[in-house]
Design goal:
The protein has 457 residues and is of the alpha+beta class. It contains 15 helices and 11 strands. The protein has helices spanning 7-18, 23-30, 34-44, 125-138, 147-162, 168-174, 184-192, 233-242, 283-297, 299-305, 320-324, 355-365, 379-389, 402-420, 440-453, and strands at 46-48, 68-70, 76-78, 120-122, 248-255, 262-267, 273-278, 308-311, 325-329, 333-339, 342-345. A hairpin with a 5-residue loop joins strand 6 and strand 7 (273-278).
Length: 457
């Protein structure tokens, strides 16, 4: 029996689930351990919104709900008879199917799935195979040297290579304990990738040799390779195929002057952009922003706003788990986590896979000119810029503004959410997309940045 599971085996598991076979029966059929079949299903099942909300019974309080509202004629009517009342109710509590708490853990073969209003889980063979292939590829990419190991190697290489003009091989021979478990080729790859204290220019013969044109084998992403397992762009496409119509929020970072403050940007499908000023471009600040957004929106509305997140491979997104999950009871049970979103990564150097946020940066740059410093800005300044950028009509929205499209889609809750973030609607005739929006001083700095970029200063 082959060690790795094939696509045919996964198709067999999916068929077995449709026929409501037990894990033990499938294990006997495929010559595998019962735990292998169970872990395969649990690790590679996918959530789906198929049929979600077809009735209001999606709320766990539906049967006992006593809320009422008044009709136009003044008569009282049960609130739960409203169409999709759970989208407007502050007391909404997501109901989950108890059948998903035990084997087979998925909805494959369930007789009730055609009329069930709850979120569903499925095991799909093709998606499981894609996830498996991604796990194999991503676990073999990047560098697996820890920070401590790279620090030891850097200390050992710095003086002998930079000042003693020794080769990497010489240093490794003299200090074997510092390079235990790493080949000479691996150390050279770390040097060429800029991950150690010495660079390629410090090597004795490197500058005399032309570097190879094909460096695909040495590509190192800024995020840990293990972070991308199960979150690749290919798996993002598979997730969208399973959850048709789900909205994606694209993330990116806008740089001011080098070493200064940066802007963390979020782009919704309707064209609305949010941005938050950060002193440091780290994963911790990213997590804090999402925790803040959840506090402002509330957990259920946050899940509506951010069902799926697509981002690049920047270091600020290197801890996707803390974006995807939140602590339900941090004071009494800090280890209990609950999912609030799904995070996926674009392929390295493929920013065209999230084109909307990249394109909208051009609108943002009309005020926050490239090369100008963000150090003097406050979050109130950024919110003012966003109010004007999001209030400019867009041909892609049939003349609507991103602000109006967002509020039209999310209703009063959406307007209140933006209000709390300081983003407000600006009349079309009052919209200003120029650095002068932030004052004469910022306008002068923007002009200097433009001249400097064109080599005048």
């Amino acid at each position: 029996m082959a060690k790795h599971m094939t696509l045919d085996t996964r198709k067999g598991i999916a068929h077995g689930l449709e026929c409501r076979l037990t894990f033990a029966q499938m294990a006997t059929m495929f010559g595998r351990a019962v735990s292998t079949i169970a872990n395969e299903v649990k690790n590679r099942m996918r959530w789906s919104n198929k049929g979600y909300g077809c009735t209001n019974a999606v709320c766990e309080r539906f049967e006992t709900c006593s809320r009422v509202y008044r009709n136009a004629d003044g008569r009282k009517t049960p609130f739960k008879h409203q169409k999709k009342c759970f989208e407007m109710c502050e007391d909404f509590r997501q109901r989950t199917c108890l059948e998903l708490g035990h084997a087979p853990y998925v909805c494959n073969g369930c007789e009730k799935q055609t009329r069930c209003p709850l979120r569903k889980r499925y095991y799909v063979a093709d998606a499981a195979q894609t996830n498996y292939r991604g796990t194999l590829v991503e676990s073999r990419r990047g560098t697996h040297a820890t920070d401590a190991e790279r620090s030891d190697m850097s200390d050992a290489l710095l003086a002998p290579v930079k000042f003693g003009r020794q080769s990497v091989g010489m240093v490794m021979s003299a200090a074997k304990e510092k390079f235990h478990g790493f080949s000479e080729r691996t150390v050279y790859r770390l040097v060429n990738s800029g991950l150690l204290s010495v660079g390629r220019s410090d090597l004795v013969q490197a500058c005399a040799r032309r570097p190879r044109k094909d460096k695909s084998a040495c590509t190192v992403t800024k995020t840990d390779a293990k972070c991308r397992v199960g979150r690749t762009y290919e798996e993002y496409c598979a997730f969208l195929a399973l959850n048709f119509g789900v909205q994606t929020v694209e993330l990116d970072t806008v740089i001011g002057s080098v070493g200064g403050k940066v802007l963390f940007t979020l782009m919704f499908t309707c064209g609305l952009m949010l941005a938050f000023l950060r002193d440091a471009n780290t994963s911790q600040t990213t997590t804090r922003i999402f925790n803040m957004l959840q506090g402002v929106a509330g957990t259920e509305f946050f899940k509506t706003l951010f069902p799926v997140i697509l981002t690049d491979n920047g270091p600020e997104f290197s801890d996707p788990k803390m974006i995807e999950f939140y602590r339900v009871d941090p004071e009494h049970n800090p280890t209990k986590l609950e999912r609030r979103t799904h995070v996926f990564f674009c392929d390295p150097y493929n920013s065209q896979q999230k084109p909307h946020v990249e394109r909208n940066h051009e609108e943002l740059r009309r005020v926050l000119v490239k090369g100008s410093s963000f150090d003097a800005l406050t979050q109130e300044n950024v919110s003012l810029v966003l109010s004007h950028v999001n209030s400019a009509p867009r041909p892609s929205l049939d003349g609507k503004t991103p602000y109006d499209a967002f509020v039209s889609f999310h209703g009063e809750r959406g307007r209140e959410f933006l209000e709390k973030l300081g983003v407000r609607r600006v009349n079309a005739e009052s919209v200003v997309l120029d650095p002068i929006l932030l004052g004469e001083k910022f306008k002068k700095e923007a002009n200097r940045a433009i001249l400097h970029r064109h080599g005048v200063l």
